[in-house]
Amino acid sequence: MSDLISCMEEMKSKKKSNLARIAYDQIKEAIIYAKFRPGDVLSENMLAGVLNMSRTPVREALKELAGEGLVEIMPGRGGIVTHISWQDLKEIYELRYALESLAAETAIDHIQDEEIDELERKWQGLLDDLKKGKKIEWERVSLYDNELHSLIIDRCENGRLKGIMSVLNQQTLRFQLLSAQALGDPENTVRQHLEITALLRSRDREKLIPVLRRHIEMAMENITTKSIFKRQ
Asked: According to the model, what pLDDT value does residue 10 have?
C-alpha cells in the first residue's frame, strides 16, 4: 500500500510540474511576442482560466519568469510584465557585441555544414518570398535569428561564456522580434543573416567577426531609435 501511495504522489507531482512548464512556455511566448506588453498585469485567476488549469502551476510559472526578469511578482495577485528600459537594452547589446563575437572565434570551427545548410535554407526561403512580393512574418525572422545566434554560442569552446549567454538569452529573446522589426528593411535583414551564414561556411574568421559585430551594432542602433526606448 505504501508503494502505491508513493507512486500516486510521484505521478501527482509530475503532473503539477508538467502543467507549470506548459504555463511557463505559454506565458513566456506571449511576453516575447508582445501579446502581453510591459506593464500588463498577469493575474493568477485570469491566466488559470485562459490556460484551463489551477492557480498553483501558474504561480510556479510566474516565479520562474520573475527569475528571468520578465515578470515582477505581486504577492497574492500574480505578476506584472516588466518594463524595458533604454539602459537594459544598452547593457544587453553591449554584452552581445563583446561576447558573441568572442564565441564566434571558436564556434566557426565546430558548426557543421549541415547546420549551415538548414540556416541558409530558411533565410533563402524568406528572401525568395520577398522577391515574389510576399510579406514575411517578423515572428519567423525573430525565430531564425535566435537559431543562428544561439548556434554560434552553443558551438563555442568557452563553457563560462555559454553559461553567461544562456542567462542573457532569456532577456535577449524579448528584444529579438522588436529588433527585427526595427531594422525596417526586411530584405536587408535577411541578406545580413545570409552573409553571416556564408562566412560561417567559408570558415572566414577574419571577415566574420567584424560583420557579426556590425550586425549586432546595427540592431542596437535601430531599436534604440524607437520612442519607447529613448533615454529618459
From this structure: 45
Domain 86-229: give its CATH code.
1.20.120.530
Residue at 218: amino acid letter:
M
Task: Say what the pLDDT of residue 177 is.
Answer: 66
> Three-state SS across 108-120?
CCCCCHHHHHHHH
Q: Which of 31 and 139 is assigned the larger pLDDT? A: 31
Alpha carbon 224 to its chain centroid, in Å, reads 18
2-81 to CATH, choices 3.40.718.10, 3.90.1150.10, 3.40.50.720, 1.10.10.10 = 1.10.10.10
Start and end residues for every CATH 1.10.10.10 domain found in the chain? 2-81
Query: Would you tell me how many other CB atoms lie within 10 Å of the CB of residue 193?
Result: 24
Length of the chain: 232
Cell (9 digits) for 195? 552573409
pLDDT value of position 181: 61
The residue type found at 86 is: W
Of the chain, the end-to-end C-alpha distance in Å amounts to 64
